[in-house]
Amino acid sequence: MHVVIRKFSNLRSVRAAAQRAETGLAAMLTRMPGFLGYYIFDAGDGVGGSVTFFEDLPSATLANERAMAWVRASIMDLCDGEPEIITGDVLYWSKACANGSKQSTTTAFPDELGERT
After folding, report:
1. What is the spatial distance between Cα 76 and Cα 69, in angstroms, rounded to a whole number?
2. Which end of the chain has fewer beta carbons closer than 10 Å to its terminal beta carbon, N or C?
């Protein structure tokens, strides 16, 4: 699994950027090969960002190229400069899963680490 984090500083409106991303970028990302999830966050004081998960690096790379084209065309009027981008392999994950009326937690290490999955 691969993660892409985009951090925007000095956004004039994090909410407006998020609304545009919800109707534009999110729709595009969900159709990309290898897409697993997309989250937008507001860190306060004009700082916002997104976290996107893909099955592999090639999928994440292609999606990031398209996402940056979307950013340049759709929200540059709301921010001062391009976002800081951080990418990497996910080494560990944990998530709550609905299991009937019970909540359970799933955790995993990628197979390549030779650890538990």
Report:
1. 11
2. C
Q: Is 54 helix (H, G, I), strand (E, B) or coil?
A: strand
Q: What is the mean pLDDT of each run of 10 residues along the chain (117 residues)?
A: 95 95 94 95 96 96 95 94 94 73 60 51
Q: Which residue bears the tokens 């697993």?
A: 36
Tokens of 86: 């951080």
The three-class DSSP label of residue 56 is coil
Q: What are phi and psi of 99, to 5 degrees?
A: -135, 85
Using left for φ > 0, alpha for ψ between -120 and 50, and beta otherwise, residue 45 falls in left
Which residues make Cβ contacts (< 8 Å) with residue 30, sequence separation at least 6?
A: 38
Please provide the CATH number assigned to the domain covering 2-111: 3.30.70.100
Domain boundaries, the chain: 2-111
Per the confidence metrics, is the pTM higher than 0.85? no
Q: Alpha-carbon distance 11 to 75, whole Å? A: 9
**Residues 25, 30: Cα–Cα separation, whole Å:** 9
